[in-house]
Amino acid sequence: MCWQLVRRRGSQEGHSHRLALACQTLRGCWWLRLSLPASVLLASRPGRAFTDRDRSILGTVMGVWENVCSGKTTVNKTSILLRNTVEAEIRQKSLGEHLRICPQGYTCCTSEMEENFANKSRSEFEAMMKEAGRSVQTILTAQYRSFDNYFQDLLNKSEKALYDTFPSLYGELYTQNTKVFKDLYSELRRYYRGSNINLEEALNEFWTRLLERLFKLMNAQYHITDEYLDCMVKHAEQHKPFGEVPRDLKVKATRAFIVARSYAQGFLVGSDVVKKVSQVSLSHECTRAVMKLMYCPHCRGMASVKPCSNYCLNVVKGCLANQADLNTEWKYLMDALVAVADRIDGPYNVDTVIGTIHMRISEAISNLQENKDSITAKVFQGCGNPKISTKGSSSEDKKRRGKVTLEAKSSAVALEMLVLDAKGNLTALKSYWVTLPGVLCSKKVMASAAADDKCWNGMTKGSYLPEVMGDGLANQINNPEVEVDITKPDMTIRQQIMQLKIMTNRLGNANMGNDVDFQDASDDMSGSGSGDSCPDDVCGKRLSKSPSTRQPETHAIPKQSGHGVIGASSRSLPSAFLLFLLGASIAVQHLWR
């Protein structure tokens, strides 16, 4: 009867029912039950869900009784054959000979489970990296926003004060020249945002245009042509019609704007570097190591056993070897930002310079009014007497002259607090890349204590003996947990190291009051988009291109790592010297060819 049952079920079509048929055959054929161990018979109980292991064993059963049905073997031989086959299957699965990542031995994981765990550990580890990076991005972006809001507020208040007070103070001298003042503040904002503007030339242009307009208004009884104005400007500048204000404001304002622009850009570059590095994918070797660290204990029935601390550190340091190489240049950038922050709240006094631009302009106009007669006489002497105008004279020369006192509301306390907060955060972030493995192991992987001898060491529950590797790619040559090719650095991370060097060099130049060309940085930032680095309303206004106000260090590259930063300026290189080195290297390469 049993034989008929086997033959009848073996002749049925439909490969999808083979496991169910095998299960029914186990329950109906005594000779098959006798040939199987108890663990397999449990799988044949009605209502039990098939596991991967059940399917494997029952598949073996199905293959054997198909041979019986086809006459390839006898029932007597089948009992022995089936028992031997199934026991071999069970022995192979228990010893973990099918595992490719986890250590072989007793296991509850199939190959499919191991692969799923590997994918899961990879995605979880990459998520940990992005989450850690986002916290740093949040800090840097918040510092950028705080300073940007403060600086823009200073400029806005100065402009508003000018618009509010100048009409009553200067009458037509202001109302007929409103565009000149608006254009000045517009150019200052564009420079701060990184537009291709030469700040010194913009200021010079402002004073020239203002002098031409005011001279013409104060001598409205004369017919003054554009050619005469050109001559007037040349002669008047020799006699300083605005006093020392233009020269003094140019020196102080350019320094203040240079450090402000570089300071804001430094935070955005730092945030963008973290974002791009956090998105670097794990290597195949690292994925295997992380899987072994996080989920192989589950396959050994030790889900509650935590990884050993030093074991976790070696895995993560091996996986983040390239990221750790950012450490030197990252510290230089943090130090450079701190140094520039001291300048902003110190010698360059951004609060006083930017917040009182309208007052300095008023002072300059007052100087011109006071010296109107002498300036006019000297201009007439050098350029000749202009013709009398038929329109008549203006009464504007009778407007109030002399010194004008305007009040300025200082926000120095707010700047001091802003700088202190920034310096604290920058100092805390200096060691981010080398402390990241420890942070991930302690807070994310939840590694056990270093001295614990009951932790997961990669093979079993016990102590972890190998020493912890150093930081960086070069120190991973003997890493016992992750196979790292130290001759092939990650190119994305190398590019970000170069961006850190370039930004640090710009900050060094700004710290000395030298302007820099932001073309490279703006291109990099525009390619990154708004992303997680900063909000759309910030990134939408990112620095595009900027000019050099003095001798711009357009292609200046900082010195290679290995030297500390006492002031950010200590790492600056002259452009001419860099060009010489570049030409020499090209020549050498040509000779070698």
TrEMBL record:
The keyword Glycoprotein applies. It is found in: Cell membrane; Secreted, Extracellular space. InterPro entries: Glypican (IPR001863), Glypican_CS (IPR019803). Residues 514-565 are annotated as: Disordered. The keyword Signal applies. GO terms for biological process: cell migration; negative regulation of fibroblast growth factor receptor signaling pathway; regulation of protein localization to membrane. Residues 524-537 have a biased composition (Low complexity). One of its GO terms (cellular component) is synapse. It holds the Pfam family Glypican. Cell surface proteoglycan. Belongs to the glypican family. This is Glypican-1. It comes from Meleagris gallopavo. The lineage of its organism: Eukaryota, Metazoa, Chordata, Craniata, Vertebrata. The gene is GPC1.
